[in-house]
Amino acid sequence: MDYRLGDMIARYREDEEGRVGLLLFPADCPPPCLPKKAALDPLVQLQLSGDACSGGYAMGNTLRNGESTLRLRKRGQEQKREGDLTYIETLLADERGNAVLHTLLWREGDRFVRSFCEYRNEGDAPRTLLLLSSFSLEQISPYLAGDGAGALYAHRLQSRWSQEGRLLTQSLEELQLEPSWGLGAVRCERFGQVGSMPVNHYFPFLALEDRENHVFWGAQIAHPASWQMEIYRRDENLAVSGGLADREFGHWKKRVAPGERFRTPEAILTVVRGESLDDLCQRLVEAGERAANAGPASEQDLPVLFNEYCTTWGVPSHENISGILRALRGHGISYFVIDCGWYKADGVHWGVSMGDYLPSRTLFPEGLQKTVDAIHREGMKAGIWFEIENVGPASRAYNETEHLLHLDGAVLTTSGRRFWDMADPWVRDYLRERVIGTLRRYGFDYMKIDYNDTIGIGCDGAESPGEGLRRNMMATMEFLSEVKAAVPGIVLENCASGGHRLEPGFLAATSMASFSDAHECPEIPIIAANLHRAMLPRQSQIWAVIRRTDSCRRIAYSLAATLLGRMCLSGDVTELKSAQWDVIDRAIAFYKAVAPIIKEGQTYHLTPQIEKMRHPEGWQGVLRLGRNGEALAVLHTFGGALPETLRLPLPAGTPLTVRASFSDAEPDIAVEDGALLWRPGENWRAAAVWLARGDA
């Protein structure tokens, strides 16, 4: 059965035993009937405790296609429409009372679908889930005969602290995902992230490419805790699935009593016939637009913000903030964020004292209200930093052990933090007083939510550490909803040591996110460009830390990077000279002019990946084509040899001309023969170009 979903088709196929599989392919590119030695790969991957697991040397590598999955048969399928929403619901069940409802959800106009599953215990005894997928697709690629040797590639986004978003591309042969000669041994690449930082090794992102036919399949998981994806084959049928991290990978199991149900997190899926991976990534990140557009009214113009962290380094006070406000006056900045340390006791570092959240009387001798009022008098929204889920060893909260997470009966402790049990009613009341109460009492308009360590495999209090982790993180998401209800219009910033929570669920719950903890390092434009594949640039808050010793060239290098997302200033603003402020003012004016392109457009990475992020060489060119027909090009040079002229190809059939540019000095820029040309003249320089339609 085929279902047309915009420019995609979802094809459900059924074998002679009643098992169901799902293909997704472009509507304008129906797959041919090519020979494959392949069994159907099921639509839902399920494993229950006590059931046999797959053979073929699968144990320890995957729980896919075990007894629980293979027993499921189609009970029914229904297409439902509610307004502009289409639901395709497929009910699968076995003879023992296990049922799974698989839902594919599409909204009119979207270029992606959402997929999730609901397990239903219709039997008379409890069952324990060890694996339940959010999605599973088969027949990748249906355009290739046999196993598609040499034509299939996997793309993943890697992440380490301050090096987020590195693209990893590997052939299936490199991953040892060629089928065996006997088609009997399982091949599986299972990867993901374990813990409460879901982007601490990989992003919950996967793309598969049929390079011969230029077709890409993509998936993201929207989940704030442990997750996994699997690229799997036993024969010539390549399949991909993902969702919650399972018993083997994520220490997860879930008991479901008779009559109860359990639903997985959502997966975002798409497919496209395109020229590059950028075409696929654009469709995936579009899934965040509806939530972003429904956010606070102040966010819709992408205002510039100032965060004082790299100015005061965790010791903000009324005195130094007053000086910063005077320096910022008249420079077009809309948000002022008081970062960590506003609560610190005398002689105690901010990083060990979070949790009590009582304003310092030394730093704010006349009270925090006076400082907030000063920010508001300058016409800025006032922001404040919290690490709501963690407590430091110098805080009184650190010893509230009854209300902190435990693992194996002991308080879950890292080198500098313990963790609130976010599902504990006492904790929720405490946070309502100390967090929501502070926001409302002083009239804050913005909250930066930081998170600087990870729970790891999970915690006590549920059937498994992984389920304890999941429940705790769901309670965090509920608290964020409570904050937004209690403080209407508040702007929420998602930060987790920078970019460790850049997943679709957290991004939908917040207005924007700290792109990284990269504050002043040369790799900032590389990270900022990488993240266009995983999130909306309008939500990517990028640091530009300006030092009094910075040359105008260095200042322009830093500020040009923020044009790849949201501009966030910090640094020595009270000590800058007029020439330095001139560069900043020109950058802010340029940013505001091109904000519509940052907000709505498609990104093209038009230069090779920079291999050495810490010691970059060569140059980077990124083009963002706006929905308004205009474009923004952001270019940076790094170390090493450079050509005299850098050439950035422009989209064919779209005549573009230079409307304005930004650099430390007037850049040598031109458009010739369908390309943007820049003669940078030196290393470590940047330029940004606003391009208008030549026929406008």
Characterise this structure.
By secondary structure, the chain is α+β, with helices and mostly antiparallel strands. Strands 5, 6, 7, 8, 10, 11, 13, 14, 18 and 19 form a 10-stranded antiparallel beta sheet that branches. The chain has an 8-stranded parallel beta barrel with strand order 20-21-22-27-28-29-30-31. It is globular, with a radius of gyration of 26 Å.
Mean pLDDT score: 97
Shape type: globular
Q: Structural class, from secondary structure content?
A: alpha+beta
Main sheet makeup: 10 strands, antiparallel
CATH fold-level label of the largest domain: Beta-galactosidase, Chain A, domain 5
The CATH architecture designation of the largest domain is: Distorted Sandwich
CATH class of the largest domain, anyone? Mainly Beta
Low-confidence stretches: none
